[in-house]
Every structure is written in C-alpha cells, then in structure tokens.
Amino acid sequence: MSEDQNPSRDGKGQTRAQHIHRAESGNRNPYQNPDGGVTTTGHVWDDDLADFNNQPPRWWMLGLTASLIWVVVYWLFYPSVPVPSSNTYFKGLGGWSAIKEMEAEKSEVDAVRGKYEAKLKDLTPAAILADNDLTEYVKRSGKVLFGDNCAACHGTNGVGTRDKEGLFAPVLNDDDWLYGGKIDDIYTTISGGRQGMMVAHKDSLSAQQIDDAAKYVKAMSDEGKNKADADSAVTAGKKVFMESDCTACHGADAKGMQAMGSANLTDKIWRFDGSLEGIKQTIAYGVNSGDPKTRVAIMPSFTEAGKLSDADIKKLAVYVYKFGGGQADAPAAPAQAAAASAVTAK
Ligand code: HEC
Ligand code: HEC
Fold first, then answer.
1. Which ligand number lies closest to the CA of residue 189?
2. Are residues 161 and 77 located together in one domain of the fold?
3. Half-sphere exposure (CA, 13 Å, Cβ side) for 119?
4. What share of the chain is helix, strand, coil (3-state, %, to 5)?
C-alpha cells in the first residue's frame, strides 16, 4: 500500500510530491528516514527517490481479518461447495436449507389456519356466518378456492362471464338469485349443483304464439309487469303466458320460483339474450331441454366431482354470500342485511 492511499497518516497535510522523499545523496541506509519517524520502503530510483513505508490503518486491518474469518465460518456453516463427482454438495455444518426454512414457515401458517379449519369443520354454514372471526378468515382464504374452482365460469369476484348467448354463468355479487341467496340455498347450490330446466315450446306453441309471448315477456321487463298487463299490444302474449304452461314454472306473477331456478321475468336482468329474438329462442328451444338448439345452464355438483371437501364447500358458501348479495334468514334480517351491504360498500 502506498502512502498516498493513506494521506492522513502523517497528519501534516503533505502533498504527494512532498511524500516522495528525496534521499540525501550519500545516505547509506535508504531505509532510514532522515527526518526520523516512518521508514522508507528502501526502493530508490532516479538516484534519490524513495517511498515512505506507511502501514494500512489498524481499523482497515481489523476489518480485513474479520471478513476473512466471516467467510470461513459462513462457508463451513451453510451449504457451499459443490461435489461434482457425486453430484451433490457440501451441506454445511448448520444443516440449513431453503426447503427446511420454507417448511418451518409453512407449519407456522398451518398452525394458525388449523385452528380455524378445525372449528369450521363442525359448524353449519349459518353458524360460520354468525361468527365474525371465522367469517373474516373465510373471506380471505376463500379467495383462492373461488379462483381455482369457480372464477372460470363465474368471473373474478363473481362478476359473471358472458358468451354470445348472454350470461354463461350468473353474476354472484348481486342480490338477484335464481336459486335463492340465503346461506343454506347457496350451500345447496354448490354442493349439489343446479340445472334449471325449461321445456322447448316449438312444438306445443305456434310461431305466432311464441312471438306474442316473447313480446309480453319483453314488455314486463321494459315497462314493468302492471303496465305490460294493461298494454293492449301485448294482451295476446299475456293470454299465451297465462294459459300455457309458463305460469307453472315462472308463477302467475312471472317472478320465478327459486325451487326450480326459473328466472324472474319481470326484472331487467337477463340470463340469456334479452332481445326479442333472444327471448323467442329461449321460449322455442328451452333451457337444458335436450333440444339441439337449447340454451345450456349447468352448475356442476362439487360434492359429486369430489374435488372439494365439505369444509371447502361451506367456506365457499360463506364466501359467495359475503360478495354482498347474501340474504339473511328471516329473524336476523336487519343486522345481517346491514353487514351484507357494508361488505358491498367496501
Ligand atoms: C362449468 C361452469 C361453472 C362452474 C365451474 C361453477 N359454476 Fe356456479 N353456476 C354455473 C351455472 C351455469 C349456473 C346457473 C345454473 C342454472 O341457471 O340453472 C351456476 C349457478 C351458481 C349459483 C346459483 C346462482 C343463483 O342465482 O342462484 C351459485 C351460488 C354458484 N353457481 C356458485 C358457484 C361456486 C361457488 C362455484 C365454485 C365452487 C361454481 N359456482 C362453479 C356454472 C358454473
Ligand atoms: C318446466 C319449467 C318451465 C316452463 C314450463 C317455462 N319455463 Fe321459462 N324458464 C325456466 C327456467 C328454469 C329458466 C331459467 C333457466 C336458467 O337460467 O337456468 C327459464 C328461463 C326463461 C327465460 C329466460 C330468462 C332470462 O333471464 O334470460 C324466458 C324468457 C322464459 N323462461 C320464458 C318462458 C315462457 C314465456 C314460458 C311459457 C311459454 C316458459 N318460460 C315456460 C323454466 C320454465
């Protein structure tokens, strides 16, 4: 190390030029600094030029030694050297490995989850919903389950997915339910699956009757049921609706029956194409009717598929309920509805 890397050593603020000591001519011992103090390196060139022999500062030497020791300790403690012949490596005295570290962290997480999971197993979906802690847990852990099993059809966060025939799978984050939005309805839907069935009418009704019925259905949605009932332009359709089999499934008020999953025909929410042509097609060919042109609506049974445990299905029921559209069982109505709308607002 040359002295100019250590300018503060002599403390006199000398410049580099001054550091180069001009040896006295005739000085026999070039190691001896004639000014006393630091010796020179003994290397003389150009007849009379020599360097001071300054030592690196103590802190620097200590640092160097400490880092050398650190390297050796680290190297021995952690996996370090590959052993190419046996296709393995020196595993280190500490026995550390990234996988062990990950497993330790995972078992910590599992311990926390385990507490909730154990509790969940023996509770009904309604009881889970009544427990704030568990509901919070399910709201967080259900996301992955929903993403893996449901989002492909129902969309992220249950926003629904569409194809050219309309909604491919219903929106789950609103309060419009085919099969009911109470927690037990949702649980039954997920575990058992659903498959609404509407017969095709292309043989039982004339093209004119289908046309009229479709106009009436569209008027109920566009203008409201009462207005449509009074509308002379659609009275022919109303007659078809009331006198054929429509009321058996959709009800005389046309608001649908949850037991059958028959759609509410008086609202503005369309499961399938809601244009006049689209409605005519639904009436003519039905839903899951077996007709080649039928509309298809199949919610798979997740119990049958064996892909989800009962605890998972319960979690999903609570998760879907908490999208905001969940409907309270009658007695708990005000508190539950407030909780549900608080979630929607988030
Ligand atoms: C293959 C597509 C598909 C998958 C996967 C799927 N669903 Fe469905 N789901 C549907 C269809 C289609 C319907 C409507 C059935 C009908 O109209 O009769 C439906 C209906 C529902 C309903 C009833 C909606 C209502 O208005 O009453 C709920 C709740 C539901 N699904 C939840 C889920 C959950 C939770 C999952 C994941 C575990 C899931 N679905 C996975 C296609 C799917
Ligand atoms: C056997 C029961 C049944 C009968 C009879 C029936 N429907 Fe339906 N209908 C359903 C079901 C179930 C659905 C909902 C399918 C789904 O979304 O899964 C439906 C859906 C519809 C839809 C589509 C609603 C939407 O949101 O896209 C229309 C329109 C409709 N029905 C009209 C009629 C008319 C008009 C008649 C009489 C001519 C009729 N239905 C008779 C069961 C029935």
1. 1
2. no
3. 17
4. 50, 10, 40
Residue 248 lies in a domain: yes
Domain carrying residue 65: 58-89
Residue 64 sits in the same domain as residue 208: no
Largest Cα separation within the chain, whole Å, is 133
For atom 37 of ligand 2, the residue with the nearest CA is 246
Q: Which two tokens stand for residue 274?
A: 């809601």
List the structure tokens of 86.
Answer: 């046996």
Query: Which residue's structure tokens are 């028959």?
Result: 262
Judge contact between 6 and 57, C-beta under 8 A. yes
pLDDT digits (tens, 9 = 90+) for 264-300: 999 998 989 999 999 999 999 999 999 999 999 999 9
pLDDT per residue as tens digits for the range 74-104: 999 998 888 888 888 888 888 888 889 999 9
| Ligand with smallest separation from the Cα of 199 | 2
Tokens of 183: 């927690």
**pTM beyond cutoff 0.85:** no
Total domains in the chain come to 2
126 lines ligand 1 (CB under 6 A): no
Task: Please identify which residue in the block is written with the tokens 């979690």.
Answer: 315
- Three-class SS of residue 222? helix
Say whether both 256 and 174 belong to one domain: yes
Q: Phi, psi (5° rounding) for residue 272?
A: -110, 180
CA of 311 to the centre of ligand 1 (A): 18
Whether 22 maps to a domain, the answer reads no
Please work out, in degrees rounded to the nearest 5, the angle formed at the alpha carbon of residue 337 by the alpha carbons of 332 and 339.
105
